[in-house]
Give the backbone structure.
Amino acid sequence: MKTITVSKRAKGINSLLKQAQRENIIVRSSDGTEFILAEIADFDREIELTRQNKELMKLLDLRAKQTRTIPIDEVKAQLGLSK
């Protein structure tokens, strides 16, 4: 992971960082890509709580063991979507 120091002059970014101190933020770029902006202490706590969720961890373990993938053409056909 890379650390970037934000200048005090970067008002827009600093505003987002201030908001992220209060609650986690999803930042969506113009192309639709999404990013999570979270204070590290809060994010660490969320990871800890997520790892304690036995049902979620079981699901993730099962999914990690799956080796078969479905080609996109097959998915489209199953959903009745054109290619």
